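Subject: sequence -> structure tokens, single chain

Hey, anyone have a minute? Need the predicted structure for the following. Not urgent.
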Amino acid sequence: MTNDMSGALARLNRDRALYANLLEVLRRGSARVCRAGERGILLYDEASGAWMMSAADQAAAGELLALVSGGCDLFVGHEMFYLRSAEARLGFSAKQICYSALYPGVEPLAVPAFDGTVRRLGPEWAPWLVEHYENDFGGLPYMQGALRRGMLGAFLEGEREPAGFVGFHEEGSIGLLEVLPHRRRLGLGEILQRSAVNLALERGQLAFGQVFYTNTASLALQRRVGMELSEGRMFWAFP
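Reply:
Had a minute. Here:
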């Protein structure tokens, strides 16, 4: 495969929802492109430490996988047909399968009024966020990084602690969305999602995220706020 960045971009722009993370790391300049063309692209994102790939067919997938460094510990594939090949090549045993979601508009979303405010969280919230986030995802260092990237908290009137929060992962996706159990069913998840989309737009980022393919509640939330879901699924693979 010869390098052809214009061909690769044409490929990615044909399905912007699926390839949103590739487009974002290219936009912000954190990606090192290893190979790019109409039949596929392989890049390494310096910010997240993730290798990211798209391939048109098995031949292209094999060619690109052969270029992945032996030190890879996080791999993102955007077509499911080479999942097993990637696992075998990299020696990985864990995976997460997702749909990608992209807000296709340019105008900010309306955020429903509620009895409280959404505001930026400062670095002092890191230990509290680790304690209240349901997923064990990188611990305190990761949450400190997320706060630097920009996290939002939904504070109900008269309360000192957030009832929920949302942020951005290292490659730019909206995530870390959590509403505390005793504050659910108040619409705060949608308020936070809409607020995160607007923050991304304000900063000139693509507003996108990934949702586990089995998480029907989150998939419904994405549709409700106007996100475009990819038809195909993607995967994250790791040791």
